[in-house]
Amino acid sequence: MAARRGPTYLRVMLGKELRELRERKKKHAEETAGPDDGVGSYTAEAVSTKLGFSRSKLSRVEAGEIPLPKLADLEALMDEYGVIEPSDRDVLLQMQRDSLKSEPLTTFRNVLPSGMPRYLGLERESVRIRGFENNVVHGLLQDEQYANALMGSAKIVEERTTDAVERSVQARMERKTLLDGGREVHIILTESTLRTKIGSPEVMRAQYAEIIRLCEQDNVEVQIIPEDLSTYRAGFCFTVLEFDELDPVVQSDGYRSITMWSKPSDVGQYQRQFDAMVKAAPGPSQTPSFLMELEEKLWK
Questions:
Q1: CA-to-CA distance for 271 and 278, rounded, in angstroms?
Q2: Alpha-carbon span 248 to 225, nearest angstrom
Q3: CA-CA distances (angstroms) from residue 278 to 72, 131, 265, 274?
Q4: Which of the two residues, 196 and 42, has the higher pLDDT score?
Q5: CA-to-CA dists, residue 7 to 11, 94, 104, angstroms
Q6: Per-residue pLDDT tens for 197-233?
Q7: CA 293 – CA 102 distance, rounded (Å)
Q8: How would you classify residue 244: left for phi > 0, otherwise alpha for psi between -120 and 50, otherwise beta?
Q9: Which terminus of the chain, N or C, has less C-beta within 10 A?
Q10: Across residues 83-106, what is the average pLDDT?
Q11: What's the CA gap between 221 and 140, in Å, rounded?
Q12: In this structure, what is the dihedral angle of CA atoms 48, 44, 95, 74, given to the nearest 10 degrees?
């Protein structure tokens, strides 16, 4: 699957390149320093101070959390790190320019939780998505009726307008175009998630049918952990995004916000949790029959 080059992805890639350049310079300084030389001049904080940035600016740029909008700032960083080859500078400059473009879902930004636009930008550029849900059906699997009923049920509590609900549902449906390509998507749901009535029996039947339909796609796998299966279950929902050129990241939902982890130790923990549940749950081929039996029990 060809690597994607969306603005969020490029922002993270640029941050990664800048971090590697700084760390390479720091390592060289440590290896060549004399006994009385200081070697702390290439920490993120030291470079920020030297170039007149705020203390946290460079760290956040390197993490891909914020863009680097000023061309002069990138020029100063390249000078500081000794990037003198014109072709190398051109690559970084083009990456910076492209990272400032608008994402396709910008029009929905005002109805998305904090952190969600960044997550959606990375989700679109992933090559593999692995998610676990223990509360509601994963967003990429949701039927439109289910999504509408789910978001509509929280309308009063969250003080949302009808227009905001409709736009949120539209954004969620647009996300599902990710499933039409070659991207690998593997979702694990708990049975209790599918037993929780959202909307009406008709809505639940439509949601079951949608999951069964998606299971027919070669790139989509869905597993369900039965209630009576004594096995490991993660304590809360999460999604792991994997890429061709970036390290994996993990996101989990909070109240009106999205939390993301990129440290290898954190990501590794979630990957182990997911792998454990994959091994324990019935295989994806059993999901359609499981849903049909559950529908017969609950929603006929």
A1: 10
A2: 25
A3: 48, 11, 20, 6
A4: 196
A5: 6, 11, 10
A6: 999 999 999 999 999 999 999 999 999 999 999 999 9
A7: 45
A8: alpha
A9: C
A10: 82
A11: 12
A12: 20
**Residue 252 phi, psi dihedral angles, 5° rounding:** -140, 150
Residues 189 and 204: their CA atoms lie apart, in Å, by 15
CB proximity list for 187: less than 8 A, separation 6 or greater: 129, 130, 131, 132, 133, 138, 140, 141, 220, 221, 222, 223
User: Between 144 and 36, whose confidence is greater?
Assistant: 144
Residue-level pLDDT at 103 = 65
202 vs 256, more confident:
202
Q: How buried is 164 (Cβ within 10 angstroms: 0-12 exposed, 13-18 middle, 19+ buried)?
A: middle
DSSP β-ladder status, 184-190 and 128-133: parallel
Phi then psi for residue 262, to 5 deg, are: -130, -10
Q: Is residue 174 classed as helix, strand or coil in its secondary structure?
A: helix
Does the pLDDT at position 247 exceed 90? no
User: What does each C-alpha distance from 279 to 194, 276, 282 come to in angstroms?
Assistant: 20, 5, 8
Residue 110 tokens, joined: 């005002």
What was the pLDDT predicted at 182? Answer: 82
Amino acid at 295: E
Report how far apart, in Å, the C-alpha atoms of 8 and of each of 106, 137, 244 are: 12, 26, 15
pLDDT in tens, 61-90: 888 888 888 999 999 999 999 999 988 888
b (16+ CB within 10 A) / e for 63-93: bbbebbeeeebbebbbebbebeeeeeeeebe
Sole residue written with tokens 């390290």:
247
- Confidence (pLDDT) at 115: 55
